[in-house]
Design a protein that fits this description.
alpha+beta, Dipeptide-binding Protein, domain 3, 2 domains, seven-stranded mixed sheet, four-stranded mixed sheet, 21 helices
Length: about 575
């Protein structure tokens, strides 16, 4: 600890004055709250609206779905105390706990899940995660509901009685129970939500939950979020904490100072500090499955109406391949991020899922062998650039790269910026546009970007959680009929996209054996890599510091990232 203390003193001297807002603990004090560092704001507390991991992480302490994960990562019942599935694997029946209540005293009912599932695929609500209902779980009738061809009341969900919830699917879903852990399928007390109107989820007074903790301090874009133990939780007796406090601290040095000053119990640290803290007994590397990658906007017609030539340039396969091979992913992971993250020469992260023979996905397909033509190689990248320049009649390219305003993301973007300039000898440049995470997401979802540094975390333990992202069904379609290519690429190569879509459909309609389904998903990854539809960068792990007296936090790479319901503080 002496080295860390000296570092803190140096940083304090250089920063002179640092304010951490409403951090709860003071130096030397201990209370029964865990103070948690997050580096981005919560964008929404509405499970059917949120799309980012930070929001999901806070929501999962406040609301629980039908199922969840135990400490070993196995599925267990939460709001559902039991379930069964029909012989054809199409109808799932969940028994809702009789002792499950919302924080306002209302019982959690089957209708709350009906309302949630209907809201998710309702085109009027326009959830960005609607595809989880119609494309992934494939609830019966969900595609027609989402397309506006049928009313949401026709969706294949129903409340058999107050405590019996039934879901009927179009096709068997082999990872159904893993899906029901996910936030988009959390229950929805529609009566309460309607009473709040547009203010729902913007304050403790306009939010209710059914999880182990309740919201007591919050407002949009706040820097501190306070949760107290929920006495109405069905298993409240097992919750040992008085509550949780989340603190938004975007600057890594400020976060480490807060930790050293005992204002944080759990902090994610910047890679530049790993060498200092790696021998500290409170240091941990928390393994995850988030994939960071460059998303390319290939000719978006909605935002730019064909006036932005850069987007047309990105349709060029040789240019995309040149960009794919122009930056050193190993250097990003080891020299820039430096937090235990690993270089990603693939789409499906290590640890995501196991093949039918039991091997990890990254053992089943060795990326460095199978995707050898996609690996970093300056000479080959420049040759591809020359081919693209000849095809396009352009020698110099200037792209805008949108990146969110946390330090690590900016460091990665700046490194890639330098690598492009070096590899292409000044002929390909990117200019960084730094935004808040919320603004970046909004711009990318609207197609208002050229290149974006973004990430995707697995929602369930199956490669389809990534595969389906680039099917044409996930392209955003606007009122004027134009499309956002932030999530689709079918107008770039319609024939190849159709082939990809056919493979995705076969993986979801029950027509393939388990082995054939797996191999088909591997073929989909190969299409994405060899055609540079996305440009992978690294698989995120978190170098963290957790106070030695904080015990029982559960970490998961899939679905709910962090669970505090069994955590406690040793006195």
């Amino acid at each position: 600890m002496k080295i860390a203390k000296k570092l803190a003193a140096v940083l304090l001297a250089s920063l002179m004055i640092v304010s951490f807002g409403a951090c709860g603990k003071k130096s030397g004090s201990v209370d029964n709250y865990i103070d948690i560092h997050i580096n981005t704001e919560v964008t929404s507390l509405d499970p059917q609206e949120a799309t980012d991991g930070t929001s999901f992480g806070v929501q999962s302490q406040l609301i629980e779905g039908l199922t969840g994960l135990d400490k070993d990562g196995n599925t267990e019942g939460l709001m559902a105390e039991g379930w069964n599935v029909s012989d054809d694997n199409l109808t799932w029946t969940f028994n809702i706990r009789k002792d499950a209540y919302w924080t306002n005293g209302d019982p959690v009912t089957a209708q709350d899940f009906v309302d949630a599932f209907q809201t998710l695929v309702d085109p009027v609500y326009n959830s960005e995660y609607a595809y989880m209902g119609y494309s992934i779980m494939q609830i019966k009738g969900s595609q027609d509901v989402f397309d506006g061809k049928a009313d949401k009341s026709t969706l294949g969900v129903r409340a058999v009685d107050e405590k019996t919830f039934e879901v009927t699917l179009e096709y068997p879903c082999p990872f159904m129970l893993s899906l029901t852990c996910f936030n988009s399928f959390y229950p929805r007390n529609q009566k309460f939500i309607d009473s709040c109107g547009e203010n729902y989820g913007t304050s403790p007074e306009t939010f209710i939950g059914c999880g182990p903790f309740k919201l007591v301090e919050y407002e949009p874009s706040t820097e501190t979020i306070v949760l107290d133990k929920n006495e109405k939780y069905y298993n409240a007796d097992s919750v040992k904490l008085d509550g949780l406090r989340y603190h938004v601290i975007k600057d890594a040095q400020s976060a480490i100072l807060a930790y050293e000053n005992n204002e944080l119990d759990y902090a994610v640290i910047d890679g530049s500090l790993v060498e200092t803290y790696k021998d500290n007994p409170e240091f941990q590397v928390l393994y995850g499955s988030y994939l960071w990658y460059l998303s390319l906007n290939m000719g978006n017609e909605h935002t730019f109406k064909g006036s932005n030539k850069n987007l047309d340039y990105l349709k060029n396969l040789n240019l995309r391949k040149a960009l794919m091979r122009a930056y050193d992913r190993e250097a990003v992971a080891n020299n820039v991020v430096k937090d235990g993250s690993i270089a990603a020469d693939y789409v499906y992260p290590k640890g995501l899922a196991s093949a039918p023979d039991g091997r990890d996905v990254r053992e089943y397909v060795d990326a460095k062998t199978v995707y050898a033509d996609c690996l970093y190689n300056k000479e080959e990248a420049y040759k591809l650039y020359e081919a693209a320049a000849a095809e396009l009649g352009v020698t110099d390219f200037d792209f805008e790269l949108v990146v969110e305003d946390n330090q690590q993301a900016q460091d990665v973007a700046a490194f890639i910026q330098g690598q492009f300039k070096d590899t292409f000898q000044g002929h390909v440049n990117v200019h960084l546009k730094v935004e808040t995470k919320k603004a970046r997401l909004a711009d990318m979802n609207a197609g208002n970007f050229e290149i974006g540094l973004t990430r995707w975390g697995p929602d369930y333990a199956d490669p389809m959680t990534y595969t389906d992202l680039w099917s044409s069904s996930n392209a955003q379609v606007y009122d004027d009929g134009t499309r956002s290519l932030g999530g689709g690429w079918d107008v770039v190569d319609p024939e190849l996209s159709a082939e990809y879509d056919k493979k995705v459909k076969a993986c979801k309609d029950g027509s393939l054996s388990i082995q054939d389904r797996w191999d088909t998903m591997m073929e989909c990854e190969k299409i994405l890599m060899e055609n540079a539809i996305i440009l992978p960068v690294y698989q995120k792990n978190d170098a963290s510091l957790i106070k030695g007296n904080v015990k029982g936090i559960e970490f998961h790479a899939i679905g709910m990232p962090t669970v505090y319901r069994n955590a406690y503080i040793e006195k």
